[in-house]
Amino acid sequence: MILVTGGAGFIGSNFVLEWCKRQANQGDERLLVLDCLTYAGNLENLAQVSEEGRFDGRVLFSRVDIRDQAAMAALETEFTPRAIVHFAAESHVDRSIHGPQVFVETNVLGTLNLLQWGRKLQDIVGDRFRFLHVSTDEVYGSLQPSDPAFSESTPYAPNSPYSASKAASDHLVRAWHHSFGLNTLTTNCSNNYGPFQFPEKLIPLLITRAIEGKKLPIYGDGLNVRDWLFVTDHCDGILSVLEKGRTGQVYNIGGDSERTNLAVVEAVCLILDQLRPKPSGSYRDQIEFVRDRPGHDRRYAINAAKIRDELGWAPAESFDSGLIKTVKWYLEHPQWVERVKTGAYREWLDKQYAVVDRSGSNTASNL
Hints:
Structural class: alpha/beta
Strand order of the largest sheet: 5-2-1-6-7-8-12
CATH architecture: 3-Layer(aba) Sandwich
Number of domains: 1
Shape: globular
Radius of gyration: 20 Å
Number of strands: 14
CATH class: Alpha Beta
Distance between the termini: 31 Å
Helix content: 40-55%
Number of helices: 12
Largest sheet: 7 strands, parallel
């Protein structure tokens, strides 16, 4: 059995689905999925491996908050997974600026609880046990245009409460390997996009707002750069690290697809112009530049040479091919989009817009 935390979220649910596809052809190992089902966790994401709300034999689900020590202790008495793949995290930069405490509680203390369980599991399972911690490139801080891309040896320099909390969790994982001999693996990924991403993040936010006829706000001058990674490529990289990675090591997973935010917005508009054209004009007419957010990192870029050279991994999707698949998915699943836009989501947008509206403009969200 493999334990997957945050398995009803965006990346976690894609990982579960990819795992089940592989197991259908290669084996029958099960997954135990944990998720506390906050606003961004959605069991509907796992509908392909469940029927009428009940999961098939490949997947077990438990609604558990990794911060809850009593709930975690109860799981320890029932399950002995051979690996933990740890996705569960608060992950939205703008939310972390408005409310940092939950980011520290979930990303730091939740990870600590899992690491402590991991030590007990390794005592039982032995050296084949693995603790794979999924992190972000944001822990490395911000790059200038001419700087080399982040490598696994880049010093940490987090600039937001979100990235600081993830950096802290990364350090805990490293310490548990060196202090206690826990077989850990850490992956730091670039910006993910694809199906099931909650529509507060940049690309699904653009798609949903564009087809609703709303403004497409871009922070600052729109020239902040991100390296984009299609989510199934990320999941494939995680599986490669889990299966073949050297314990105690860090592997950066990137899409080799640096784009400015403005270029991303324009690319989304171009695809929408082709797939769902407006009666007149282009979706680009809805673009609006707005005031930048606090602590907005200028550029992220991932050097993925280590995972490519050691494990033979490379992304299968280009940014363009992945983006077309993503836009098509959101256009084909309007009911999913509408259902995840709960009152909590609308309240968040109202709060975020209200902060900026006092200066006369709207704002956008990105990873």
